[in-house]
Amino acid sequence: MFMPRALLSVTVLVFMFLSSGDAIRSFPNKLTCVGDEAPIGFRMSMQFSEAPVYQNEPQCAAPPSNSMVFARDPSLVHIAMTIDLEYLRGSVAAVHSVLRHTSCPENIFFHFIASDSSLENISELTRIVRSAFPSLGYRVYIFKESTVNKIISSSIRRALENPLNYARSYLADILEPCVERVIYLDSDVIVVDDIQKLWTIPLTGSRTIGAPEYCRANFTKYFSDEFWSDPEFSKVLKGKRPCYFNTGVMVMDLVRWREGEYTRKIEKWMEVQKERRIYELGSLPPFLLVFGGDVEAIDHRWNQHGLGGDNVVSSCRSLHPGPVSLLHWSGKGKPWARLDGRTPCAVDYLWAPYDLYKVQTP
Q1: What is the pLDDT of residues 104-134, one digit of tens each?
Q2: Residue 115 forms beta bridges with which residues?
Q3: Where is 126: in which H helix or E strand?
Q4: What is the pLDDT of residues 60-72, one digit of tens each?
Q5: CA distances in angstroms from 68 to 35, 64, 65, 178, listed in the order given
Q6: 14 pLDDT exceeds 70?
Q7: In what order do the strands lie in the sheet with 209-211?
Q8: Vertex 190 angle, CA 291 and 219, to 5°
Q9: What is the H or E stretch that residue 69 is in?
Q10: What is the C-alpha separation between 361 and 358, in angstroms, rounded?
């Protein structure tokens, strides 16, 4: 039986499902799939409006009861996102968009990953999620920054050095073993299609992740001359046809991930980076090296990325031609910041209808 690696521990779990009340549980050394509830209080500061109540359409399976939340219930769609105060406004908008457009909102379960560097904010984060989405099924997990602090390298943009940015590499350890499949979403996305369509995309063969691929992108530019000049490094891609993919939207088979020990494989490339400087970006290049050439190619409509400009300049960009299911403000510019600063791009107005933040008046 798979046992989570000792590098991570979930010290606080905040659980809420359907009509049940908020709860907090502490697990010093292990994860469980179900459990009792205990009430907690919340302090007030940031304010968000309550989202409309979204209910399942008639064809949806009945949502599981509290005691079945983490059973292998095929009706549940599991979505993982990081959550912190800096990007909270984006996270809330993303959740709102998922619920608004899915046919079975009561069957969506969110796994929010928060950093242990701001434990004092956990109750605030939970209060906001509860106030905006009283019927949402979710859990909050704590990610220990010490897990990655020593193997994070400087990046082209400081935000990419945030330890929480690397939590996606540890989802197989963080989430309960009975969670076998998950959709990972960045906090700067808006879903404008039924997330069930993305959830049901099969990962064929032995593929562990699925994501939109961009094979016309220059793959070599994501790695330094130091990488390409060393045959021991570049041979990892020999015989493959790797394409660029963005890790802000991924379908992940956590069973295959655990069996393949992919977290450790990613860590090894991060350790090489500390010694040899083989790339400039943050958490993306190790994913390209580990999974490049073996990714389930998902339709581009599921990640219209780059809407925030590049990693240095918050420039305006237009949507790519074709149908759109997910908008992604990857890059330096974020729609909430540009709207607040009265310097919005045209695409930022597509994000605004999902924003639940209440502007504070002096």
Answers
A1: 999 999 999 999 987 778 888 999 999 999 9
A2: 143
A3: helix 122-132
A4: 998 877 544 555 6
A5: 10, 6, 5, 11
A6: no
A7: 23-25, 13-16, 137-143, 108-115, 77-82, 181-185, 249-253, 209-211, 296-297
A8: 30
A9: none
A10: 9
315 vs 142: CA distance, rounded Å:
34
Tokens 């996102």: give the residue.
81
pLDDT digits (tens, 9 = 90+) for 178-207: 999 999 999 999 999 999 999 999 999 999
* Cα separation, 62 vs 178, whole angstroms: 20
Q: How many helices (H) and strands (E) does the chain have?
A: 11, 13
State the Cα–Cα distance between residues 25 and 14, nearest whole angstrom. Answer: 6
Q: How far apart are CA 59 and CA 350, in angstroms?
A: 29
Nearest to 354 by CA among 35, 7, 1, 101: 101
Contact status, residue 222 vs residue 284, Cβ threshold 8 Å: yes
Torsion over CA: 297, 330, 314, 269 (sign) = negative
pTM above 0.85, yes or no: yes
Is there a contact between 227 and 233 (Cβ–Cβ < 8 Å)? yes
Signed CA dihedral, 205, 206, 211, 214: sign only:
negative
The first and second tokens of residue 212, run together, are 């939109």
**Using CA atoms, how far apart are residues 49 and 30, in angstroms rounded to an integer?**
35
